[in-house]
Amino acid sequence: MEIRQKTKLLLISSILIVSAAYSFHKIANLDFWLHLKAGEYILGYFVIPDTNIFNYPSEGHRWLNVYWIFQIIIFLVYKIAGISGLILSKVAIFALCVWLLYKAGEVDGASPHLNALALILCIMAANERFIIRPEMFSLLFIALYFFALQLYIRKRKRIIWLIPLFQLFWVNMHGLHVLGLFVILSFIVGEFFSSVLRKHFDKTKLKTLSLVFGLSLLACLFALYGHDELFLLAKGTYRALSLKNIPELISPFSSRAGFGTQEIFFYKLLFVVSACSFVLRIRHLNWSHLILYVGFFYLSLQARRNIPYFAIIAGPIMAINLTRSLAGLTFFKEKKWPLETCGAYIIFGLSILLLFDVASNDYYIRNRSNKRFGLGISPATYPIKAIDFIMKNQIKGPVLNDSSVGSYFVWRMYPRQKAFVDGRLAWGDKYLSYFYLPQHFQRIAKSYRLNYVILGHGWSSKLYGLVTALHKSKDWALVYFDEVAVIFVRSSAVNKAVIDRHAANLGLKSYPANLLFQRFPVGHFHLGNLFVALGQSTWAKAAFEYCIEVFPDYFEAHLNLACLYNELGQLKPAERHYLKSLDIKPKLAQAHSGLGEVYLKGRQFEKAIKAYKAASSLDKQNLSLRRTLVLLYLNEGRRKDAMSELEKILEINPQEKIAKAFIGYSSKPSR
């Protein structure tokens, strides 16, 4: 084997190792089970449901299930090879995706080394979405289209005639099949514009590309729901952009996006380097690539979950641009095989280091992810033991559940029971708006005659207010809790037996010592938060202290323990843990504001001002912090600083009446 072939094999092996490392993890995405159940239903009854069947409040409402081919595929794989087969299939799909991207760059002359490095960066930015969802096929098809079009433009290979066939499947697998049309159209417009600049039209090329686009557009007409699917896509996009309380739907450039996750850093790095690669090629732009790049970057700006679509386009394009920009350097002109091989070994070594980082789960712990390397199901994600409890004790519906529980509930309980919400956003605007508010719960409970409630308490802090209200209510009894879920049943004759057997006597019952993820005790952390909601401060402190003992850099445990001490009026330990959380995570607005509250209670006003200023600089839109600062400045006689802060409040909210009135009063001349 020649040295150059060995080098190429090392580089391809490197990207495949990195791709496999980041996609080989236990199933941890919430809506997986809903798709699996839908596939089971379709194959079991040989019908694609066109109305909601899994949740009872919207039973009979129209359901445009645009994922039906995906659902059939994953259920068939599950029946043949189980969960392990599904995970390995996912690994193979993402490996194929990155290989196609590597070949796409290679076709356009990208340096093998730069190509491999660019794709490793691409994987680092996109791997958060390496999960079993319909989008994994969208990513594969985008990579395939890009490769096929590159191959046709550069070598006139006729593989592009397969694109309309793939579009026929894609249109019934994921709503973002329109991205395939955008990829083709980008090449048509780019080639046309390049032809205008060169004053030479290749009519055959443009005609072929246009015909492929037309056939692909025609394939979209074979979508099961036709034009309604486009309406659903537009409606879903609008809903997604409006639900900014869901992390994956927040813009990656938002201060609230991906709290501390590394994918955001690598996404921004990818953007900076890839944008610079276009600047370096400003006189010799590939217009097709530029259109693709801008379009997919705009898509990624809308929501964090769209980052992978940008990444898989930016990676190979960046490699191509950088190769051509650096082609004039001596290193690239001369055939220095030893250096080339050495570079390949360095990249291969990097891939092995990344593999060990992921396989040890250090990567997932740093990113506070429920994913864990290997086969199987992540037990910290799904209410497995809670559903076991419901089935064993034959607790009947109607049930109220939150969205984190819905998909798994459907998988285990349907058709015996239907969920309140099955995890989809297609139904649930009203639910997402006020379900967790105790004052609205009574209306929902009465309207649907609820018999029990199951909440995935670890997924949203907003649920703890409802947990507290239910625990204090004489109408509901707590019969089960663990590190993932909590169950309340209505205090009625129907539930008397289960209440007598299992009503949680918190004065006697203890929580288990051996919970999930021992290296990173997220189970104890979730229980600590639950105990706070249940008014069990002693247990809560024990749980948070255990988290810190096992994982000293668990800044969330330090923060929540500090908040608990602060609430109990124990200011010294509260200050200590706030400061410790800031040692670990300096840009923690909640810790700064909590520290300010501690100093305010202790009448250390200058320290309080400093803490609140730090908090408001991190959480710039928080008016409550700024109002507190105004009062502190006035208390200290710092009128000018108070006025400055009031002006900032009015910049954020021009309708702030108190700020307007105060500034108006202060501007009046004294008599």
Set out the fold topology.
Layout: H1 3-23, H2 32-45, H3 68-107, H4 112-126, H5 135-155, H6 163-170, H7 178-198, H8 203-219, H9 227-242, H10 262-280, H11 287-302, H12 307-325, H13 330-333, H14 337-359, H15 362-366, H16 384-392, E1 399-401, H17 403-413, H18 429-434, H19 438-448, E2 452-455, H20 463-472, E3 476-481, E4 486-490, H21 496-502, H22 522-533, H23 537-550, H24 555-567, H25 571-584, H26 589-601, H27 605-618, H28 623-635, H29 639-652, H30 657-666
Helix pairs in contact: 1-3, 1-4, 1-14, 2-3, 2-17, 3-4, 3-5, 3-12, 4-10, 4-12, 4-14, 5-6, 5-7, 5-12, 6-8, 7-8, 7-11, 10-12, 11-12, 22-23, 23-24, 24-25, 24-26, 25-26, 26-27, 27-28, 28-29, 29-30
Question: What this model shows, in words?
Answer:
- This protein is mainly alpha-helical and 671 residues long.
- It folds into 3 domains: 95-334, no CATH class; 391-603, Serine Threonine Protein Phosphatase 5, Tetratricopeptide repeat; 620-666, no CATH class.
- It contains 30 helices and 4 strands.
- Strands 1-2-4-3 form a 4-stranded mixed sheet, with helices on both faces.
